[in-house]
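lol forgot to send this yesterday, sorry. struct tokens for the thing we talked abt
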């Protein structure tokens, strides 16, 4: 590679520069997230919230390695959020903005709320956890392909394209819902919290290391 792509350069111009991009809508959006989390906690849906944070944490892990690929290659992230189309209010990492962050936390909580109480119950003859993981993963991939079609998400590596959506399905989204459902189904809240804490703690360590190395 001979240098950062045009899309990547446009994103680098606003990376972690909220003074240049911040919009007021982020404040009510934050309150929506806070309301959802608080409401579920008040209803004692602790494992639902922990499952939501587990999905959020796995997404952050994906965003970290995506950033690593960008800066190590000196070319482009696997997915990027360029300036000019679907502009963000705050770009946190090269392919990860504040809107995406809020979205995935809410998605994790929503996914866990969909689950029947009985983890062995079946939907259309399929275990409900497997059914919802397949359904939500497939839906998420379709939406992401549409976002790429609209130019909001850019894909500049040959292995990550609409022509091979199975890669997005296996790497991009199935681990998200698998982690959320795994945490949700832990026998105790303490065990669920330990798994989610491990995911987020691992993310924190990676962020510190990548920041030190200039990979984020």
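and heres what i got for the seq, position by position
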């Amino acid at each position: 590679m001979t240098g950062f792509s045009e899309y990547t350069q446009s994103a680098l111009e606003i990376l972690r520069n909220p003074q240049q991009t911040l919009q007021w809508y982020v404040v009510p959006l934050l309150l929506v997230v806070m309301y959802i989390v608080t409401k579920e906690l008040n209803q004692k849906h602790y494992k639902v919230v922990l499952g939501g944070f587990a999905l959020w944490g796995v997404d952050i892990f994906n965003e970290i390695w995506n950033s690593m690929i960008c800066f190590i290659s000196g070319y482009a992230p696997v997915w990027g959020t360029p300036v000019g189309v679907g502009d963000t209010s705050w770009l946190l990492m090269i392919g990860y903005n504040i809107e995406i962050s809020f979205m995935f936390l809410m998605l994790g909580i929503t996914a866990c709320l969909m689950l029947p109480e009985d983890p062995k119950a079946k939907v259309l003859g399929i275990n409900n956890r497997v059914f919802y993981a397949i359904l939500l993963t497939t839906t998420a991939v379709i939406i992401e392909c549409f976002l790429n079609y609209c130019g909001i998400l850019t894909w500049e590596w040959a292995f990550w394209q609409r022509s091979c959506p199975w890669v997005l399905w296996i790497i991009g989204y199935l681990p998200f819902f698998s982690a959320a459902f795994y945490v949700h189904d832990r026998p105790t809240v303490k065990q669920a919290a330990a798994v989610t804490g491990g995911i987020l703690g691992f993310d924190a360590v990676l962020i510190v290391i990548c920041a030190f190395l200039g990979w984020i």
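Helices lie at 6-12, 18-21, 26-42, 46-73, 98-114, 128-150, 165-184, 189-213. anyway ping me if u want another try
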